[in-house]
Amino acid sequence: xTGVSQNPRHKITKRGQNVTFRCDPISEHNxxxxxxxxxxxxxxxxxxxxxxxxxxxxxxxxxxxxxxxPKGSFSTLEIQRTEQGDSAMYLCASSLxxxxxxxxxxxxxxxxxxxx
Amino acid sequence: GESVGLHLPTLSVQEGDxxxxxxxxxxxxxxxxxxxxxxxxxxPQFIIDIRSNMDKRQGQRVTVLLNKTVKHLSLQIxxxxxxxxxxxFCAEINDQGAQKxxxxxxxxxxxxx
Lengths: 116, 113
Description:
The complex is a heterodimer. Chain A contains no helices and eleven strands. By secondary structure, chain A is mostly beta strands.
């Protein structure tokens, strides 16, 4: 399968612990997005990368959240000192964006985080 | 603030019937609209898209209609099948640079046998 993959698929952690998620985009895609989705809601944008550069962060991304894409390939999303409100599905998407044309974002299966 | 919303949270149709899922958006500057399908335990899957300079686009069994006058988007699914059961989201893009998606709440479509 050459789609977007995410690991782990599920993570249960205790409040106050740190967690890290990984996203492997489609190999030739230069754009990588992170979204968060809570139950019954649509995904909300968190941040995105163009190659290795993080170009935009949502105000939803507090200072406890950090994302990296060190070599312009896979990306990690770390949450420090987790809170119960961080419980959500974290989705990664990638696209091959160029210029001002619109390109489909392909989503991974997500990582479901439960903070107890 | 900017939002993309849906009229109905749930919709049930009989297998073989046509379904229509509606979406209202508030940002008249949005350039691009997309419908996504999300099955349980999976990420959103692209269905069909439409640019703001169009009012209709057809795909295989699906049609998207865009009415910019009333800021309304709809997804029509013809001859529904059990595999169409899912949550459907409309999303918009209003910045051509980042192209980040702004999603609505979603409509759960259930196909009855």
